[in-house]
Amino acid sequence: MSNFRAISLLSIFCPLLLFVTSAFSTPKVTRTVLKNGLSVVLVEEPKAPVVTFQVWYKVGSRHERIGKTGLSHLLEHMMFKGTSRHGKGEFSRIVAKNGGTENAFTGNDYTAYFENFAADRIDLSLELESDRMQNLLIDPNEFKLESEVVKEERRSRTDDDPYSALVETFYATAFLVHPYHNPVIGWMDDLNNLSREDAFLHYKQYYQANNATVVIVGDFQSETLLPKVTALFEIIPKGQAPQTRMPIEPPQLGERRVVVKREAQLPAVFMGFHTPNYKSPDAYPLSVLAEILSSGKSSRLYKTLVYQQQLALDAGGHYEDLTADPNLFYFYGTPRPGIALESVEAALNTEIKRLQSEPVPEAELTKIKNQVEASFIFGSDSNFARAMQIGRAETVGAGYDYLTQYLANIRKVTVNDIQRVAQKYLIEDQKTVGILIPKPAQKEEKQ
Q1: How far, in Å, CA of 265 to CA of 441, rounded?
Q2: How confident is residue 397, by pLDDT bands cut at 50, 70 and 90?
Q3: CA distance 86 to 144
Q4: What is the pLDDT at residue 24?
Q5: Is the pLDDT confidence value at 9 over 80?
Q6: Which is the catalytic residue, given 76, 129, 146, 351?
Q7: Containing H/E element for 407?
Q8: Shortest CA distance to 267 belongs to which of 237, 225, 312, 301?
Q9: Is 76 tagged catalytic?
């Protein structure tokens, strides 16, 4: 889920940016830490009588070990299965009855839960989320049922999807030691062996007030809302802080390649490079570089491989700086029927080398920075999207200040910065390549 997708039309309306660049800092923001360690961020946005409530826990697949992978995602499912106060399914029924929507998601670095309500229903979120932060039951029978749901989810989304299987193998090859090696949904053998006790211990270890951030954005007054948040959440006892030290991925000493052979319509190639996260000042030129190369149909990769050379049906990539630990800058390409996979891989490499050897024209850089800026601003236009930005930044350690300074740092990126980071990070010894080779469909034997 990228926050920085390009909006190419905005480069035409550059004067508009003079008006909207301050949009992110306009609302009143209240940030506090309760006595039990819970972080709270309130953003007043009275433009519509609605509100978004989100609670972000600092736990995801990054916090799991081999043998117990998939716990965070499975626990996310169990959070809707009832507490000592609200029985199975009652959480969702209460939200729906009051006209709201709710859901949750798990990533490498976090698990988050949210409700969207009319502004006068915000008290429901406070009561429901404070309840399941401390009173989850994890019924053994419900755990067994939900385990089967998760395993079926893995089968349909990964095991039966050749491209998802390629990405999973690609990441497992790029990361040998760091837990970004593991898929968020978990390995199937681990899912088969997880127990109710595993989930309960995971809940007790990580679902602590001092390991969470509450973000509320919408039509309210902080002076009225904060005491309510404090009354319901501060009574939750402070827990023992989870261990946060992660194994450090050792330097990659040469190109790695992995081949996946699956039943598929078309081959594909993934290419990734180890890059720093938000903690490095290079994250800003890398974000701009990602837009230049791989964001949308106006990017260099798409224009060259799909439109001009007609080698690929699709081409792109992604860089995400808002991760707890350094991750990958990756590219991908899907050859047209009849085009060799090697031709697409070579074309990807050519575009990378072009950036390393030829400075980006100043006009192109200005256009791309406008797109990054516009996408960031409009990405914070809705209550939900703004809360997502804040929740992720707070959870991975970047903090709210990262968001307020982001545009200023993007504007500082120069042509020399782009060429420098391309030469520094997009190198052979840091590269992992994943190849999907289609296999013919197996014929079913006649009975």
Answers
A1: 10
A2: very high
A3: 20
A4: 47
A5: no
A6: 76
A7: helix 400-411
A8: 312
A9: yes
CA distance linking residue 218 with residue 216, whole number of Å = 7
Tell me the domain boundaries of the chain: 36-233, 256-439
Residue linked to tokens 């990756």: 330
CATH class name, domain 256-439: alpha beta
Please state, as a whole number, how many other Cβ atoms lie within 10 Å of the Cβ of residue 349.
16
* Per-residue b or e along 124-158, where b marks 16 or more CB atoms closer than 10 Å to that residue's CB: bbbebbbbbbbebbbbeebbeebbeebbeebeeeb
Amino acid letter, 60: G
- Lay out the sheet containing 327-335: strands in order across: 256-263, 431-439, 268-275, 327-335, 312-319
pLDDT at site 27? 84
Question: 249 in the Ramachandran plot: left (φ > 0), alpha (ψ -120 to 50) or beta?
Answer: beta
Rounded Cα distance, 206 and 191, in Å: 19
Identify the residue whose tokens are 């067994």.
144
Residue 444 has pLDDT above 90, yes or no: no
Give the DSSP letter string of 74-93: HHHHHTTS-BSSS-TTHHHH
Neighbours of 228 (CB within 10 A): 14
**3-state DSSP assignment of residue 315:** strand
Q: Which two tokens stand for residue 257?
A: 């390649």
3-state helix, strand, coil split of the chain in percent (to 5) is 45, 20, 35
Residue 51 and residue 123 in contact, taking contact as beta carbons nearer than 8 Å: no
Taking CA 209 as the corner, what is the angle to CA 92 and CA 148, rounded to the nearest 5 degrees? Answer: 45
Homologous superfamily (CATH) for 36-233: Metalloenzyme, LuxS/M16 peptidase-like (3.30.830.10)
- Average confidence (pLDDT) over 315-334: 96
Q: What tokens does 75 get?
A: 């626990």
| Residue 373: partners with Cβ closer than 8 Å, 6 or more residues away | 10, 17, 21, 407, 410, 411
Which residue in this structure is represented by tokens 């050859």? Answer: 335
Residue type, 442: Q
* pLDDT in the model for residue 23: 45
Beginning with the edge strand found earlier in the chain, give each strand of the sheet holding 212-218 in spatial order. 28-33, 39-44, 212-218, 50-57, 111-118, 101-106
Task: Tell me if domain 36-233 and domain 256-439 are identical in fold.
Answer: yes
